[in-house]
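Running this now, will post back.
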Amino acid sequence: MTEPANINTFQSFWAVIVHVISLFYGLFFVFAGFNLMISGYDSAKREKAKYWLGNVILMILFVQASFLIYDLIIELSSLLTAGVINIVDPNFFLMTIDNGINVGLQLSLLIPYIGVLITTIILLGLRYLFAVVGVVLFPFAIFFYFIPPLRSYGKLILNFLMVIIFVPFFSAVILFGASALLQIPIFANFKIVLTIIAFVSVDLMMIFLIIFAIIKAAFSVLNSDVGRGVKKAIKYLV
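Update: finished.
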């Protein structure tokens, strides 16, 4: 959970993606310069051309630095997660013999507890894989974001990647909150139940955040100029 995703494995793929994207830089500069030239005394067109030129410059800078930016974001998420996990009581994750109620519950709920842990490990493993592969998608996200008609698609990818990267931090917060409840006597007698609920909450939170990010971005895409154009075309064909 606290280990940062090792994105160096996909650095060569990232380099290929950035090289392909860089082929469009010259075209965008020509387009922006041409619009600036033909704007004449039309201030609105001139400002639009300048805005486009600024977007192109920012896009180039961020795309070229996307590997470093992505790595920094992952490191930040890892540090935040580690900071929270370090203040969680280590005994929270262990089967302890502290009172009769806990011992009985631990024996009866051992199999469900193991099942929940396995599910959490699988989800975190998939999250780690997506976070590693995300370094290849990150340049596309930046590229799309700075092109107004494709901005919604850039947001879609960015939202998904940010959720994938910061899911461990939110999971650590849930675990810390559950472990803090053990300080209350009434919860101390039901430690295994609280632990299972905490890990189930982590699993549901991971699934919910990913689905929410995708649905939110999908609605954004449908409400974009491209999305409206597609809906009009479908409506016309139907």
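The chain is about 80% helix and 0% strand. More later if anyone needs it.
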